[in-house]
Amino acid sequence: MKPLTLDAPSKNAALGASPLLQGLAGQDLDCLARISVARRYDSGEMLFLAGDEAAGFFLVLDGQVKVSRFGSDGREQVIHLLGPGQPCGEVPVFEGGAFPATATALGRVDCLFLSRAAFLELAARRPQILLGMLAILSRRLRALVDLVDDLSLKEVTARLARHLLDLQREAGVDRVELETAKGTLASRLGMSPETLSRTLGKLQRQRLISVDGRTVRILDRGGLEGL
Amino acid sequence: MKPLTLDAPSKNAALGASPLLQGLAGQDLDCLARISVARRYDSGEMLFLAGDEAAGFFLVLDGQVKVSRFGSDGREQVIHLLGPGQPCGEVPVFEGGAFPATATALGRVDCLFLSRAAFLELAARRPQILLGMLAILSRRLRALVDLVDDLSLKEVTARLARHLLDLQREAGVDRVELETAKGTLASRLGMSPETLSRTLGKLQRQRLISVDGRTVRILDRGGLEGL
DNA sequence: GCGCCGGCTTGACCTGAATCAAGGCGCTCG
DNA sequence: CGAGCGCCTTGATTCAGGTCAAGCCGGCGC
Q: N or C, where is chain B less crowded by C-beta within 10 Å?
């Protein structure tokens, strides 16, 4: 981790771009910009470990952060993938205690650190950001319910199909790009890399998709939905 | 579902007992009591189904509510078990859209229904309840991360052991009572009833616990922690 | 009392996915 | 250019836990 110096305008712009802080007045952003600290992490560096005491939370400005848990045997389950504008490690701000999971930089990541106290102080003056935070936590809750559903009630083929359809819905086109390395995707879907590889192969043989590196083309959307 | 008539004082007391609304002034509780609707559900009745459009959320006053998802084959995964004072179905209040899961009454349940608009109107006047809500969502997020961790990274024996230790920590004594039927517990832990039965038997044979109906006695806490 | 029903247990079997092991392909770096 | 290293694929094997199928037990209505 390196401290990172951002000039006030760019910090301000970065803050304003977050859905969390949208609708905040310029002077509030200025205030936030003053009390936040910019940091840069290199690929693979950890922002925090599950169990660390939390003094505040992070706001991702640039890059991608992986939030995951590790089993006693080293196996990993990815919980969230966070991009620019997303808060990271916010749970202990409202509930106290430690971070529930570990956050790792995937590639270079720039972010802001906001102390718990500073954020709560701002929230007391501008309660609407609490609504923004509630919306974000709600979305995460929904995503986690889907993940639990996947892990417990669906077989791997269905999980993968759903994920591909999700990506396609976001992208809008039939040619989608996997947002991470296949190994990471496997861990996000709760399967081994070998199984992911085999399952992609199977779907390809069934003419439902075609795979080229990290690019996947959806050939038969209906067929995928049938799983 | 039956409409339920509560006199103002008891409704008021019920509201005040929720951690969500703690610290609210008497007049705010009065206001809430006026805008909320009390309802009673019989065992097995559903408060809402996953996918239903949400006009508001529920506050459990008495009894226990099971929040779960069902797989296409009918298998069930319990997401939360909610007792008195807990809000239920609150996610769509902040994010819009439908309920993410299905809520079922386990035994007779009394609750209040609060419309989205009424709650948000109150929140605008008393932002501290947003902090209360954030704390509750944070706790649920933490619980869900633990559930994902269990399902993906732990084997069934470890899940069961952890659950028993959780119960014991809450109860404080070595003799703990399962809060639901064993079938429901199995579904909560993401395993089949048969497997739960076998695993309880195994732990018993290892002299780590002893089971009598719904009562479990922890014999070797260290041994359980080792899993 | 007797039969029935729902919830639990037990046993036999099956299968989906993990694991282990061995390459292959495409990098970057010396 | 070739060595070495990540990352991915492919094949063989294993195993945890699900499914299916019987019984068992306790409560409850008749």
A: N
Question: In A127-155, which residue ranges form alpha helices assigned H by DSSP?
Answer: 128-153
Tell me which residue of B32, B38, B16, B18 sits closest to B122, measured CA to CA: B32
Establish whether the CB of A195 is closer than 7 Å to any nucleic acid atom in strand C: yes
Dist CA B189 CA A106 (whole Å): 32
Tell me the CA–C1' distance in angstroms for A186 and D7: 13
Cβ-defined contact of A134 to B134 (cutoff 8 Å): yes
Calpha distance B60→B81 (Å, rounded): 11
Distance (Å) from the alpha carbon of B150 to chain A's nearest alpha carbon: 9
Percent of the residues in chain A that have a pLDDT greater than 90, as a whole number: 57
Q: Splitting chain B (227 residues) into consecutive groups of 10 residues, what average pLDDT does each group show? A: 70 75 76 85 89 94 90 87 92 94 89 92 89 94 94 94 92 87 93 95 92 90 90
Strand partners, A215: A177, A212
CA distance A5 to chain B (A): 32
